[in-house]
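Homework help board

Subject: predicted structure for assignment chain

Our instructor gave us this sequence and asked us to write out the predicted structure in C-alpha cell form, then describe one feature. I got the C-alpha cells but I'm not sure how to describe them. Can anyone check?
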Amino acid sequence: MKQRIITGALLIAAIVPPIYFGGVYLQVLLGVFVVAVVYEFIKVTNDQQIWSIFGLLVAYIFFNLFINDQWFIETTSLLVILLYTVNVFNKNYDVMKISYLFMFTVFILLALRSFNELYAINVLVIVYLLLITYLTDSFAYFGGMLFGKHKLNERISPKKTIEGAICGYLGGVIIGVAFGLIFLHLPRTLIIISSLIIPIFSQIGDLAMSSVKRHFDCKDFSNVLPGHGGVLDRIDSLTFSLLILNILVRMMS
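My C-alpha cell output:
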C-alpha cells in the first residue's frame, strides 16, 4: 500500500503540471504516454516477434497526433496494408496478431485525439472527466467491499460485484452533475446526459481491458508503475470515457 501511495503521488506530480501548462509540456507527456502504451500492449502478448513493428505503430500514432491529424484515413489505410503485407511474408504474424495490433493502435490514437479535442475546449473538461472516471472506480471499489454479494462478470473480473458497480455509477453521476453544472460552460443537457452515461462506459472500459489481460493470462499490462501495474492499468476506464464524452460533445454542442 505504501508503494502504491508513493507511486500515485509521483504520478500526479508528473501529470498535473503538463496538463495545466499545456503546449510543448503536454506534447512531451503524451509522447511518453504513447511509447509506454504501445510497449505495454505488445509486451502483454509475450511474443518477441512482434517487437519488430514497435516503431511502425508508434510512428503511426505520432504522425496522426502531433504532425498532421487530417491524414487519418490515408495513414490508417497504409497501416492496414503494411500489417497485412507483414502477414503475407512473415508466418509469425498471423491474422489474430495483426488484428489485435491494429485494433489497439487505432484505439489508443482515437482516445488521445479525443483527449486533445476535449482539452481544446477547456482544461476543466478534462478535470470533469477525470473526476467522474476515477471516482466511479473508487465508489465501485468501496461499494463492492461494503455491499458486494453478486458477481458482475466472474469470467473477466471475479472480484467486481453488481452492488459495487451500482455504487460506482451513482457516485460518478452525482459528482459529474455537480461539478459540470458549477464549473463547465457547456449546455446543461450535455452535462447531465454525459454524467449519466460516462460512469457506465468507464466501467465497461475497465472490464474490456481486464478481458485483454485475461486473454493473455496476466495480472497487469506491465510493472512500470510500482504498486499500480502499467500505464494501461491506470487509464483503462479513462479511454472509454474519453471516447464517449467526445462523441457526445460532437453530437450535442
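Reply (TA_rk): Your C-alpha cells look well-formed. For the description, you could write something like this. The longest strand covers residues 157-161. That's the kind of observation they're looking for.
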